[in-house]
Give the backbone structure.
Amino acid sequence: MSLSSSDIAAATRAIEQNQRFLIVPHANVDPDGLSSALSMYTILTALGKEVTVICPDTLPSSLDFLPGFEKLQREIKDAEDFVVTINLDQGVEVDKLRYTVEDQKVNIIVVPKKGRISHRQISLAEGEKHYDLLIIVDTADLPLLGSLYTEHVDLFSEIPILNIDHHISNTRFGQLHLIDPTAASATEVLYAWLMQVPAFRAHMSPDLATLLLTGLITDTRSFQNPNTTPRSLEVAAELLDQGARQQEIIQHIYKTKPLSTLKIWGRALNHIQIDAQARIVWSAVSREDLEEMGAQSKETHGLLDELISTIPDADVHVLFTEVEEGGFKASMRSSAAVDASRVTATLFGGGGHPRAAGFRMKSYDNFHLQVLECIRKIKEEIARQAQDHDASFGNANRKPDAASPKIFKKGTSIRVGDVLPRREQKINDKHQPEDSFEPKKATSTEKKLPQGPVDIVEGLTSS
């Protein structure tokens, strides 16, 4: 799927016909969201537009290399002027004007120099709005903007919205849409649009190319994630030709981490838990962990990728992180065997992509117990997906393979390679999948957990 010519034309007209723009990425913004917002800022200011970029999050210093980073603002200026008009066409002249505030009331005192003012000469009106168009990037639904949305609901309902995104779960909010779920990042969607509009393409620069490449690199985990497509690689090559500073991106995103980040990553990796039967790996970072390590929740960005590289053979990886404003966020990655966006949307109202999704939870009594409850629900939903898949191929009643993975007792010390069997799918001529589960032996080249044995979690019993 690519952007339609009608959507491109409508979005382009909206840019040409308006002057004042507000750009907003999602709450707890990631590099793709921030790079998309700053890319739009760069293009619009080059076109002579008035542009405001709002990002209320406290951003990590590793992103301050992004061109335009210093232009980010924390708050929306959405208060409209209220105009009191006095008609002076009957020979009235004003001598003095003052106001007082008493008992939650504003009194405007007008002292005429000549003539008399009647209430019939007074009219009231709302002033002009500060923005002509809202541009929301990398955001599947308005509530994902967080407090920025809940505190300014009227603004988001009164001003037209251009929705630029690549999430399959996008609700198509707003009046204008540039949405391509096949794109690997929001910046890839932007690039496709910019390259088809000569007025935009004329302003391509090394800074803009660097912003666009940053989103693409980070959302594909340096082109390692399954969402990487041939088109993504072509876009990356074109951006490099246009001056994108790849090594600068890599240095700041992947090679520059403060001590607090390293400490909280170590804590999370030491808390890894595995359900071998369900092929799920997860870890949790509590508010207490963050306080003890002197870290912030935003410093867990990128940690899920480390979790995946540490234990690559699971079908599902989940990272739960408590956040400062209350509640927790959960990020999920999956293999082709599991639709992560379906799991998170069905169970928790989340969303994302088939291989990368997430959700949030605001209210719970105990973080660690809630994590276990979420994992229980995720396992059940994965089992339902598997049943649906088997039923669709007529294999609902297929007997388990004799080589099913070994199940361990809780408390058993294991090596990762011994408990996560490698799943292979064999497709016969009728395209009916047959899963084969063979216990996988650890090899000398296989990555191990950073510290000691792993405990099998509650819920597994001996076979």
Residues 82-126 form one domain. Residues 396-463 have pLDDT under 50 and may be disordered. The longest strand covers residues 93-102.
